[in-house]
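Input (structure):
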């Protein structure tokens, strides 16, 4: 096997050996941007091109990530051979480990625009975080790029649809974790797109319609048509949805709008019916 000069820094970054990384960077700082020739055994991607920052980020090596970014902050924007950024790998951590979330914060501070980068198979870091049930990471990425919750990858999957698909396929007792991620995501994006995604997800998404109604009220008539008649938890959503709908209706009447109102007559009538049935 041919020796690669990158190996010492690569191994130290992977293992989180901050003292060794510091010593290696003092001798050869240029190796921070040296790409590996092959794949990594523990991270997705077969085309190589991994920087030490990819390797440290994917394993939540906080101190090492700080060291590497201090020498070469531009490394946060460097994709590997398949387009994966360090942020993609940090976001893909299963669950919300404090270390990975801290690494995500460091990477976003160095390169905020990477939150909206569709790298590795055309996927966003947010899609990876949603797939991995990384709720704290999802919230951080949404704060950095709130318009990405409904951005589709080449297969047509969005971060929201990914979280819902995972909820539908989860073992009993585990779906709540995926629904919590989806609940974060549905707060972002246009109401019609959110409700269409919930409807397409089927039964697994039913507990989230009430959240969507509260978040996006007042709704258009087209959006109201997507809300199921049997909507779990709607009772708790009625006060907020009713108030938003009535405020919208009064504003429409005040403006004497001739075009379809942002809160159509069907909305108040449907809410009134639900309200009556819930009391």
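Output (sequence):
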């Amino acid at each position: 096997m041919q020796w690669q000069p990158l190996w010492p820094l690569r191994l130290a970054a992977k293992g989180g050996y901050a003292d060794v990384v510091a010593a290696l960077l003092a001798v050869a700082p240029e190796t921070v941007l040296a790409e590996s020739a092959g794949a990594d055994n523990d991270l997705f991607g077969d085309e190589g091109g991994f920087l030490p920052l990819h390797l440290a980020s994917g394993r939540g090596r906080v101190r090492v990530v700080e060291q590497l970014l201090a020498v070469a902050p531009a490394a946060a924007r460097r994709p590997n051979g398949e387009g994966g950024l360090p942020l993609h790998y940090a976001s893909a951590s299963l669950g919300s480990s404090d270390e990975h979330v801290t690494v995500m914060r460091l990477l976003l501070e160095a390169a905020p625009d990477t939150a909206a980068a569709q790298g590795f198979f055309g996927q966003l870091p947010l899609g990876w975080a949603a797939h991995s049930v990384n709720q704290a990471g999802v919230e951080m990425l949404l704060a950095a790029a709130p318009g990405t919750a409904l951005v589709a990858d080449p297969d047509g999957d969005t971060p929201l649809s990914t979280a819902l698909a995972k909820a539908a396929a989860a073992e009993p007792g585990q779906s709540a974790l995926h629904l919590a991620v989806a609940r974060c995501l549905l707060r972002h994006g246009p109401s019609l797109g959110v409700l269409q995604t919930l409807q397409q997800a089927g039964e697994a998404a039913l507990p989230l319609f009430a959240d969507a109604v509260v978040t996006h009220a007042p709704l258009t008539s087209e959006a109201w048509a997507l809300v199921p008649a049997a909507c779990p938890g709607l009772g708790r959503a009625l006060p907020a949805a009713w108030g938003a709908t009535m405020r919208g209706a009064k504003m429409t009447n005040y403006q004497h709008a001739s075009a379809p109102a942002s809160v159509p007559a069907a909305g108040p009538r449907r809410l009134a019916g639900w309200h009556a049935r819930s009391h």
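Notes: The chain has 15 helices and no strands. Residues 251-266, 272-279 have pLDDT under 50 and may be disordered.
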